[in-house]
Fold this sequence. Notes:
Blueprint: H1 2-10, H2 16-28, H3 30-47, H4 65-69, H5 75-93, E1 101-109, E2 116-120, E3 128-129, E4 131-133, E5 138-146, E6 148-156, E7 160-162, E8 170-172, E9 178-184
Antiparallel strand pairs: 1-5, 2-3, 2-6, 4-5, 6-7, 6-9, 8-9
Helix pairs in contact: 1-3, 2-3
Amino acid sequence: MMNEIISMYIDDEMTLDDKIAFIEKIRADIFFSDETMGLLQQEKLIRSEVVERLPVLDTGPRFDWKKFFKPFFQPMGIVASALAALIVLLLIYTPHPAPGLITERFVIFKPDVSQVEITGTFTDWKRIPMNKIDDSGYWEIYLNLTQGEQRFVYILDNRYSFADPTMPARERDDFGGENSIFYAAQRI
């Protein structure tokens, strides 16, 4: 308790009445007087030049935006920034194939028809016209398919359905015809 009172006196945390009472206590008690003198000597030593003083703490902003962006406005910084922006734009706007899409070529030999269409699970059973290859009798089309099992059929002259003769897997459809079945997968 005595150390606390001495500390309050040294740190000037007492009222004038408290200081008067403190001085009277020092005069009356020699042990208390010696202890007070010792603590005052310690405080004097702490506040003197003997003890290394800590540098003043800079309480400015923690992050200086001007210093951070200064290199970007130097000639090489501008070039580097422009190059980085160009790379980012190229990565964003370069067309990338959709994941899991596989390009499949469908070919059929039917020289005696005037139109061939293909329809299947990959077109939501909507008909897509195929392209005639010159006068060879072959019809072809390239389609992007998702990976997995697919079903399809050719429509000849807008009337007849025709399963692909090169695919052995088939199934009967609800209309009495046959659909070809195959598994679309990435080829190595």
